[in-house]
Amino acid sequence: MSFLASFFGRKTSAPVARDRLQILLAHERAGEGQSELIAKLQEEILEVIKRHISVDQDKVQIKMDRGTGVSMLEIDIEVPETRPAVKTA
Amino acid sequence: MAKVLVVTSGKGGVGKTTSTAALGAALAQTGKNVVVVDFDVGLRNLDLVMGAERRVVFDLINVVQGDAKLAQALIRDKRVETLSILPASQTRDKDALTPEGVARVIEELREKFDWVICDSPAGIERGAQLAMYHADQAVVVTNPEVSSVRDSDRIIGMLDSTTERAKKGEKIDKHLLLTRYDPARAARGEMLRTEDVLEILSIPLLGIIPESEEVLRASNLGMPVTLSNPTSAPSRAYFEAVRRLEGETLDVSVPTERKGLFDWLFKRSVA
């Protein structure tokens, strides 16, 4: 039957479901406190940045993208235009 | 030695109550003394599925709080004499269930019955935790569908960590009951196959209940499906599941409806 489906150009959906679940559950089992980790990272990264530049908390975006081989932690900080109040001289 | 079994799933609407009624009735039909306990306080439905909705006087909360004796709250099934139901309360809040009260009721039920089957509410909150806390065994009801499998995985994690047995460092026997399964769709790659779900959840398979009209018909009539039509495909699957619960080793297959030519013609003309 599956060859008929592919003949008509429609891919079967169950293998996609299985793969998505396997990736998702591997991550969910690995870390129950994953969302806590992201919140903590956000807090601490912001703290470090604040020591040098004044940034708005809302301007810091932290995202997690979980893949099979690689997971990506994306940190996006919008720095204000004004020069940071750091004395170099 | 009585066994306490929780029927749980995390996700709602996958067939916990239907399966509790069917497994409970099937065990009782083989002569075991069985009580099915509804833990879904505020949204009780086991009484309705079992056809006992007009006979409820006292409920689990009344017994937990000491307002009624256990014997007053138990409803004896009219069709199978070894089957009883302990209904949930429809009006009370789920906070009315105390861990101490539930422990006392379960202990008392263990003395009276061979099997105590607890129908868990959906979710992972207090009600679900209390329903699974005293269990020796668990039936995890799962549909071959992504959200149901994910929630089952979560529930399996809870069974291994938050139950009384887990806290004592003992094992809790977990069984997978795959419900609403359509073998034809699975063969066409349109539905997760049994092997996929087993590989992902990695707990032993108790049975595969095929999608069937008989299940709705049974709940319409207020009868467990194993009573309303004992030879139907889902009933045969439940009877086999019960034999596995009793420790028998049987190959798992998906029972199919034995259809006559007339059924076949009729179905064609409707479709």
Automatic annotation (TrEMBL), chain A:
Entry-linked Gene3D superfamilies: Cell division topological specificity factor MinE
UniProt entry tagged with the keyword Cell division: yes
Pfam families, A to Z: MinE (PF03776)
InterPro entries to which the protein is assigned, alphabetical: MinE, MinE_sf
Keywords: Cell cycle, Cell division
Biological processes, Gene Ontology terms: cell division; regulation of division septum assembly
Top-rank lineage group of the source organism: Bacteria
Function, in words: Prevents the cell division inhibition by proteins MinC and MinD at internal division sites while permitting inhibition at polar sites. This ensures cell division at the proper site by restricting the formation of a division septum at the midpoint of the long axis of the cell.
HAMAP family: MinE
Family membership noted in the UniProt record: Belongs to the MinE family.
Official protein name in the record: Cell division topological specificity factor
Organism: Gluconacetobacter liquefaciens (Acetobacter liquefaciens)
Lineage per the UniProt record: Bacteria, Pseudomonadati, Pseudomonadota, Alphaproteobacteria, Acetobacterales
Automatic annotation (TrEMBL), chain B:
Subunit structure and binding partners: Interacts with MinC and FtsZ.
Organism for this UniProt entry: Gluconacetobacter liquefaciens (Acetobacter liquefaciens)
Domain CobQ/CobB/MinD/ParA nucleotide binding: 5-225
InterPro entries per UniProt: CobQ/CobB/MinD/ParA_Nub-bd_dom, MinD, MinD_FleN, P-loop_NTPase, ParA/MinD_ATPase
Name listed for the protein in its UniProt record: Septum site-determining protein MinD
One annotated GO biological process: division septum assembly
Function summary: ATPase required for the correct placement of the division site. Cell division inhibitors MinC and MinD act in concert to form an inhibitor capable of blocking formation of the polar Z ring septums. Rapidly oscillates between the poles of the cell to destabilize FtsZ filaments that have formed before they mature into polar Z rings.
Pfam families found in the cross-reference section: CbiA
